[in-house]
Structures are given as C-alpha cells and as structure tokens.
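Prompt: May I have another protein with tokenized structure?
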Amino acid sequence: MTTKKTSLSIWGWGSLGVVLFLITFGPFAIFYFAFYILCFVGGGFVVTLLFGKSNSEKYLEQCEHSFLPCTSVGIPKCIEEMKREARPIKIDRRLTGANIIDEPLQQVIQFSLRDYVQYWYYTLSDDESFLLEIRQALQYALVQFSARSKETDWQPYFTTRLVDDFGTHLRVFRKAQQRIAEKGDQMKDQAEELVDTFFEVEVEMEKEVCRDLVCTSPKDEEGFLRDLCEVLLYILLPPGDFQNKIMRYFVREILSRGILLPLINQLSDPDYINQYVIWMIRDSNCNYEAFMNIIKLSDNIGELEAVKDKASEELQYLRSLDTAGDDINTIKNQINSLLYVIKVCDSRIQRLQSGKEIDTVKLAANFGKLCTVPLDHILVDNVALQFFMDYMQQTGGQAHLFFWMTVEGYRVTAQQQLEVLQSRQRDGKHQTNQTKGLLRAAAVGVYEQYLSEKVGIMYF
C-alpha cells in the first residue's frame, strides 16, 4: 500500500508540473528548450576549436625558430636522392687468382648480364646499382667455387671415378646393342627400342639408379637442372642473397635454361661432335690404307652406305669434268680408287646382311701375321685394353678384369699419396691423418665390393 501511494504521488506531481509549464510558456516551449540546449553544446565546441587552433599556431612558431633542420619526406626526398651525383663503381676483377682464367670469366659475366638483364632493365631504370649487386653476387659465387675447387682432390675423380663411369656407360650401350641384335627384325622403331633397352640394362647393372626420365623428357631435364642449380646456389651464395627468393629464382633460371641446358644440347649434338672430331684429326695422318682398313673392319651398315653414297657423288663429279693433258691421268686414278671403295663397301654390306660372323683370325691374316702381346702390355694400353674388355665380357670373366683395374688404380693412388706424405715429413711440415683415412676407406670399399662374403659368390 505504501509503494502504490508513493508512485501515485510522483505521477501526480509530475503531471501537475507539465500542465503548469505548458500554461506558463505555451505549447512551443519544448522546441525552444531543445534549441537552447543545442546552441549551448555547439558554442562549447566552437570555443574549444578556436582555443586549440591558437595554441597549435603558437607551438608551430616555436618549432620554426628551433635549431633542428626540417626533414624531407615523400617525393621531395626522392627527388633529392636522384639529383645526387653517382659515385664511381669499383669492381674487384679477381676471381680465381689466375689472370688467364679471370679475364674470360669476367667476359662471361659481362655477356650474361648483357644478354639476360640489361636489355630489359635499361627500359625501367638507368641506375647501375642493381646490375652491380648482381655482378657482385656472381663474382662471390665464383670465388667460393674456386676456393672449394682448390680444396678438392681431383686426381682420384679423374683417374678412377670418371673413367669407371665412362667405361660403365660404354658397357651398358654395347650390351643394349647386343640385345637389339638378338631381337633381329622384330622391332619397328630401332632407335626408340635402343633407348628403352639401354635404360633397362642400366637398371640391371646399377641396381637402383635409372636416368631415363632425365635423359628423355625435356621437362624432367629442366627440373633436374633447376634442382642442381638450387643446390649450387645454396652452397655458393651468401645466406642473405639465397634467402631472397626473387634473386635466387632469377639466377637459377639463368644458370639452368640460359647456360647449362644450351651447353648440354650442344655437347650432345651429333653434328657438333663430328665437327669437333674432324677438328681434332685435321692434322693427323690418315692415309688411304688406314681408311680402307676401317671400311673392312666396320660392322655398321649405315656407315658403309654413307661412305658408298659419298664416293658415288664424288665419282659422278669427276666423270663430269672435261679435262685433257696430264690432269686426265690423275682423274682416272681417282676414279679407279673410288670404284674400289664402292666395291669394298658393297662386299662388306652383303657380308653383314647375309648374317655371317666375322672371322677375326682370317681377317687379321690378310693384314699380316698375328703377334703375341704380353698381358702386362695389354693392361696398360688403352686400345688393347678395350678389346680385351670386350673379350672378357664375352667369356664372362669381366669381373676379374674390373677387380684388377680397381686394385691397380688404388695402388697407384695410394703410392702417390704416400710419397706426398713422406715428402712433407722430410720437409718438417705438419702431418694429418686425413689422407690415410681416405686410403683406408677406399681399401674397405674395394674389399666390400669384390672380396666380402656377400658379393664374393656373385663375382667369383
């Protein structure tokens, strides 16, 4: 009851106040009251704004009379930097320490920048700082490569590993040719079948290694070269430059697609190889007898047909000449020689197409008596060793020959390294156990490859 009485009294007094306000000031008093409040708030805001503006102007006047210079920002700062004179660029041209090597390398760098960077960069800017940074990064990589190359012992690689890899490649190729010959006329595309057979033999001989995709697919070859360049850049470039993805990808594409891929394509071009072989044998004495011996010993029908076609073209040219006097005797001799070459090629092609095996003993008897060559002379002569390896492969004893070659290579390398250690010991220089450790590891590798119980039965 008390609460109800209180609420009724409040509503009563409130209603009475509103009625008296409207009777006294009129019905428009509410709008006047709201207008007065709005004017009060707006006036306060204007006063505050004017007061802040006056204080800000006083503060700016104090800053203008201070001793600190005003800073250039934005576009004025850029214009000021561009107007500055370019400082002279100094390039250290030393790369490997040998002037005869540094100058060609500097030319390669210059040509690479010209062909792959400058032709599009100068359309964007004339500032040389970007080109200088790229040049310095390339020179740093070359210096690191030179330093690492000097620390590497290249003798075992060139005398053992590279020779073994090349010999393995030849053995795989010859074994693939042998399988192709065994299949006979069952193949439709001999070239494609030879490639497939080559990689099948490679898998059989090297177990888990097969390079068919890298060698036959251009896309996989480019991917492999990119990965290779990525590893080289990780080793050679400074960490800051390698973390820069744009620069790393840019240099990687230049190395893979602009240098390595064209180099590989050129070295694997048959025309380039033929021209290089011609250049190498240009000054050698290849007489008529040697040429005829090569034709008589050749077992490639395609090569014999090519020689025959070339001789026929030359024969037609000589017969078309209109000569007289002493020149006619020379031309007759040349015509007779070409006719004899064509005859030998025809007989050789017929013999190969008939499927008859070549009797090497009778063939050698046509050139003279066979001579007895000691085994130690065969093993140190490259040509004789190649024929001996073919013979051992036919008889199934190539494992013995490979074992001897590996041990002999290890013996020569170990003898040279021990002589170097002895000379250092005589000179009083500090001795390290690294060389002996490498020789010991190589000996263990030879034992595990040829003499251990796991592979002993397979080889012997």
Notes: Residues 377-451 form one domain. The two ends are 121 Å apart (CA to CA). Residues 357-368, 456-460 have pLDDT under 50 and may be disordered.
